[in-house]
Specification:
Distance between the termini: 80 Å
Number of strands: 6
Strand content: 25-35%
Number of helices: 4
Bound molecules: zinc ion
Shape: elongated
């Protein structure tokens, strides 16, 4: 059995403070029997927007994945009949009658989101002095240096001026 997905992010409760799903979740789910278990193979596609942790610019994270997830018949768990498959992360349980993969799909998508999204590996981030985006060129305040020893020195110099001894 094959199911076609074209669902709003809302359907999968896909919302968060640090990301925004920009498109419907599309893909296919193919279900097949494997003994008492059900194997779900599928594809998922959508676009998610996150903020770069360094420069705070919005960046797009395309999700385009294939996955296989095995739904193990609950009876097996009750019998304590463990096999290797159940050790794997990509396994879930079902009652033997119905499968509702919504939560699993949600997790499959969220799993692909980076913990520390960066618009590019060498993103220069924001100027510590004026906050302008250093990726867009040298900063007008003339302090594009972000190395911490320099910053610390400036900081101490400024304190000295406030409390002269
Ligand atoms: Zn960035
Ligand atoms: Zn600056």
């Amino acid at each position: 059995m094959t199911v076609t997905l074209d669902h709003s992010p809302h359907y999968f409760n896909l919302k968060g403070e640090d990301f925004q799903v920009k498109e419907n979740i599309k893909g296919t789910l193919h279900f097949s029997l494997l003994g008492n278990d059900v194997v779900m193979k599928g594809t998922l596609r959508t676009r998610i927007e996150m903020e770069c942790i360094r420069c705070l610019e919005p960046m797009e994270i395309p999700i385009d994945k294939r996955f296989t997830l095995t739904y193990i018949h609950k009876k097996k768990r009750e019998r304590g009949d463990f096999n290797i498959k159940e050790e794997e992360d990509d396994a879930s349980y079902f009652d033997g009658f119905t499968i509702i993969p919504d939560m699993d799909i949600r997790e499959l998508i969220l799993f692909d989101l980076p913990d520390y999204p960066k618009c590019r590996e060498d993103c220069l981030g924001l100027c510590p002095q004026c906050g302008c985006n250093l990726n867009e060129g040298p900063c007008p305040c003339g302090k594009p240096e972000t190395s911490s020893p320099q910053r610390e020195k400036n900081w101490k110099d400024q304190l000295k001026q406030i409390h002269p001894k």
